[in-house]
Amino acid sequence: MHATRLTLLFNASNVKLSSDCHRAKSSKRTCFSAKVDLISQYNRSKCLPGKSVPQHLHKRMSNGRRIAQPPVRRHFVAAEETALTGESSMNRIIEKELNNLGVLNVDPSLASYKGHFQYRYTKFSQQKQAIEKHEGSLEEFSQGYLKYGFNREGNSVVYREWAPAALEAQLIGDFNGWNGSDFRMQRDQFGVWSICIPDKDGKPAIPHGSKVKFRMKTANGMWVDRIPAWIRYATVDPSRFGAPYDGIYWDPPPSKRYEFKYPRPPKPEAPRIYEAHVGMSSAEPQVASYVEFAENILPRIKANNYNTIQLMAVMEHSYYGSFGYHVTNFFAPSSRSGTPEDLKFLIDKAHSLGLQVLMDMVHSHAGNNVTDGLNGYDFGQSAEESYFHTGEKGYHKLWDSRLFNYGNWEVQRFLLSNLRWWIDEFQFDGFRFDGVTSMLYHHHGINVGFTGNYKEYFSEATNVDAVVYLMLANSLIHNIYPDATVIAEDVSGMPTLGRPVSEAGVGFDYRLAMAIPDKWIEYLKHKLDEQWSMKEIVSTLTNRRYTEKCVAYAESHDQSIVGDKTIAFLLMDTEMYLGMSCLQSPSPIVERGIALHKMIHFITMALGGEGYLNFMGNEFGHPEWIDFPRKGNGWSYDKCRRQWNLVDTDHLRYKFMNNFDKAMNELDDKFHFLASTKQVISSANEDDKVIVFERGNLVFVFNFHPNNAYSGYKIGCDNPGKYRVALDSDALEFGGYGRVSHDVDHFTSPEGIPGKPETNFNNRPNSFKILSPPRTCLVYFRVPEATQLLVDRPVPMLEV
């Protein structure tokens, strides 16, 4: 087989052939054609119905009277006004950029969709220009939390809330006995309500830690109480079933505020991510705290040589079982695990260990909860006066959640400020954006099959408002913190998602390689070992776009939720209850399970992307599944925890998988293969069930055959010299049989005619021979010449 470059130039990235945006699946496939040239559409209609603008941005007639006109897109009007007021230099810059879009230079086959890229880049540029004109800068615009919500201004507490649908508004809470008659708020022309409450006797009128709510009168004359949209902490009475949340005024005195002690670690050249859920990290059937996670789990993560943590379920969510994806309070860390200061302690502790901390960012939708969340501000008003679209456009029927109106000025302020809040206030180092596919398309990926055809990505089905928001978000994040890591959870494989905004890309650093875990589940559930295709495995792992980086993973939290199983449990099932003791010989099921668990995770890491992700507990083969407390399981926490005792018990075999996980990460620490652009597959042999490839300066050999050991097996390599074992899954410390000698030197032999790859062995100019036991993986490194000269001993016999 000819050598194959892993970086496939213009293939869609890990496209799942049937998806509804990662949470439900359907076999029905539809394809949307690019019926409209979007740049032409933009030229024909620069103002589209459905969006509002500040009063000072409305166009006026020559006599100064405001034109009576339907609502228009706020950013279009601002951009049009900008052009009319003589700021032509910026427009000339935009025009120049439009004629030389970087994404087209990277992928010339996108030229057919140049109009689409020009359209979206124009919208991005003009919206950013409008923000700079009316808000000062994108950076100032993203500090909305300094104006909205509760803030100290002089000797007063000032509270502001955007609620244009309200007829009247009051602030209520413990501080005024929940009587707002003397605390009526004033409305400005943009629908922002405000109140200034002076201090009393030198103390804040609203005590720190006291409960507060926003009371407003709706169009039907009813008064309703809501948690402030920008609240920084929210709690619930755990003794009352189904009790509503309360907003908490959070302004601790200096003595009780957490002060960060450690600098942020530098951005790793390749992220090795430990995905974790703080609440379910306890070994006990209970919700763990931020402090407990920092003290007990962070040392485990560091010991396993991860360099990045991705925290799930940080933003407050009233329903624990939503895994944190139905957010109700976007600026508040979940009170189940502690206070905002406790979360800061966790992040600072992680930084002290050299770990970057990413946050699972949910801007794709909002919880449907009316009492506790943003949805409580929607009373059926127009989309211009709401955070969400109206009707079906504003509702995700599969997730039972609300969908943001990304083109709305105040929605952009809220979401962009939300990003900056978590970066500035809590020192997060980046984000993993959840549900990006739902944002990118008006159909949200529901019942749509993505095949890699570019028409599926760039058409009237594309939600350009959402794309522009993501471009603004990535621009902001990388401007305020250049070392940030931002990852997109996109199942569609949209091209340019991982290219810089300056090139008209969307600006993410990485995308999740979401097709990989599906392929492993398919193999484990539906195919015998003898039916596994080496070429199909390679194809799945390497199906990603050139210059758009991916984070690969064999399994995440998605593969462990109730109704499914972890890879270890799929492999070994009930044998994990009785057959994991080292005091007895392993059964064939356990032997196979541990071997394949190591191989699946390692080949995914080594071949699947430029980063790697593992979900908490899967590094040691955590059994069973995840099931949050709910009525159907008697509100049990038994499956909503991590059984660390399994890996800590020395006579159990879980330690072998954990040791190998640690060694995988250590190998990248030493040889930096994940960040290497040298990626060459030299063999994917279906008969032998062997895959051989080079990543960086390492040579990887995976023998998936259930029975065959290969003695004197010849493998190709690039550089001549002496090779030694760098990692061996069959080593005793990994639960193997120690069949491969690590002190044997492997010397290369030249292959073919120099300069003529077709005469080489598997298209490689050199080769050496190894022993390859069944169901094992081996990694070889080339001993540097300087090191070879220092070794004064006879040349060893070649292992056969």
From TrEMBL:
Signal peptide (residue range): none
Active-site residue list: 434, 489
EC annotation from Swiss-Prot or TrEMBL: 2.4.1.18
Biological-process GO terms, alphabetical: glycogen biosynthetic process; starch biosynthetic process
Reaction catalysed by this enzyme: Transfers a segment of a (1->4)-alpha-D-glucan chain to a primary hydroxy group in a similar glucan chain
Enzyme class label: transferase
PANTHER family for this protein: 1,4-ALPHA-GLUCAN-BRANCHING ENZYME, 1,4-ALPHA-GLUCAN-BRANCHING ENZYME, CHLOROPLASTIC_AMYLOPLASTIC
Main location: plastid
Protein name (database record): 1,4-alpha-glucan branching enzyme
Cytoplasm recorded as keyword: no
UniProt xrefs under Gene3D superfamilies: Glycosidases, Golgi alpha-mannosidase II, Immunoglobulins
SMART domains the record matches: Aamy
Keywords noted in UniProt: Amyloplast, Plastid, Transferase
A Pfam short name: Alpha-amylase
GO cellular component: amyloplast
GO molecular function terms listed in the Swiss-Prot or TrEMBL record: 1,4-alpha-glucan branching enzyme activity; cation binding; hydrolase activity, hydrolyzing O-glycosyl compounds
Keyword Plastid recorded: yes
Metabolic or biological pathway: Glycan biosynthesis; starch biosynthesis
Location of this chain's protein in the cell: Plastid, Amyloplast
All copies of domain Glycosyl hydrolase family 13 catalytic, residue ranges: 288-653
Subunit structure: Monomer.
Family recorded in the similarity comment: Belongs to the glycosyl hydrolase 13 family. GlgB subfamily.
